[in-house]
Amino acid sequence: MSLPQAVAPLARPLTRPNPPDIPALVVDAGTPSETVVTESAAVLTYLAALGGPEAEARLLGRDALRRGQTAELLTFTSATIHGQGYGSIWRPLRFTDDEAAWSGVQAKGRAVVEWAYGVLEQKLAGRPAAAAAASGAGDGDVGVADIYAYVFWRWGVELGLDMKGKFPRYYSVAKRVEGLASVQKTLQVEELAPLAA
Amino acid sequence: MCLLFCSTFDFTLFSTLLFFLYYYRLSQQDLTLQPSRSLAPVSHPNTGPNRITHVRPLLPNMTTPLPSLTLYRRNGACTLASHILLTHLNIPFTEVIMDIGEGGLHAADGSLSNAEYRKIHHSGCQCPSPKPWRLSPDR
Fold first, then answer.
1. Which residues 6+ apart lie within 8 Å of B82 measured at CB?
2. Could you give the ipTM of this predicted complex?
3. CB atoms B62 and A52 under 8 Å
4. Model-level pTM?
């Protein structure tokens, strides 16, 4: 899949930027062993391990290959979709101090996001658990890569992309994640509407 | 002789009591699955009224205490994933809801300044211009 070279600028300004310097997870605050974990991929991996061996296997992967795939998805989502794509859209200053060039950076960022969602569509659906869920053979395991990808599926909807129509397999993953009781509860706490119904 | 016997007996009784008391307390500590430290972080002054603290039951299969966790997050941001996972695993945590202003990220309830947050996070969104997050392409 090639990246489009010429793209239109954003049709509308976005009003809810994502600050680039969260999350920060402070472990054992105020003690000699206090440690700060940053970067979503690292925080998610750490939290999955805290859940115990069974949760860790379910969330990160039950064998070496699945764990490698999880790391691949987390890294791709964090670095390409978030860092490059949405970073360009929401914080063009990261890439150039020239304010006149910001609209071009933002347009390029949108193209990166759309291209990367296409990649994610293939990657997410290619895993056995996701394929089983999509075919109705079972619910499949929801892993940290699915949960992380779900957040960016929401952002795609907020960006105005046709996330259901253009990325149907990615949509099935988002719908499965959003169906979890824990996700519904978290959305309520963050005052967010379900988007993958 | 009698005095010596009584003193030795008292000392033995006292030592035995101390021994049992020590092992009783030790066994109580070993059986405790609650975190040994307070969940409330003390490394920053975030004690504002709007701060929300979640305390959930410990995981059923845990054999060691969980560490105390403090998540700095913002509604709808990428931190939604970490928030979901904490909820999904039922892990107790304290949250500090962040907001972004002229000076960068700070606690939404005003209890943590950007300068204080930068001591926690290596960059803390110390924005180099007044409004670098202006998003409209025509501005």
1. A23, A25, A40, A43, A44, A47, B71, B73
2. 0.88
3. yes
4. 0.74
Closest CA to A192 of B15, B76, B22: B76
Nearest by CB to A18, from B77, B91, B124: name it: B77
pLDDT tens digits along A83-139: 999 999 988 888 998 999 999 999 999 999 999 999 999 887 767 555 444 444 444
Q: How far is B27 from chain A (nearest CA, A)?
A: 24
Q: Which one, of A165, A159, A175, A68, lies nearest residue A118 by Cα?
A: A165
Fold of A66-189: Glutathione S-transferase Yfyf (Class Pi); Chain A, domain 2 (1.20.1050)
Give the domain extent around B22: 1-31
Q: Rounded to an integer, what is the distance from CA B33 to the centroid of its chain?
A: 15
Sign of the CA dihedral B31, B37, B38, B39?
negative
Interface test with B, best of A10, A25, A144 (most B CBs within 10 A): A25
Residues B79, A10: C-beta atoms closer than 8 Å: no
Whether B63 and B10 share a structural domain: no
Q: Where are the domains of chain A?
A: 66-189
Minimal-distance CA residue of chain A relative to B123 = A21
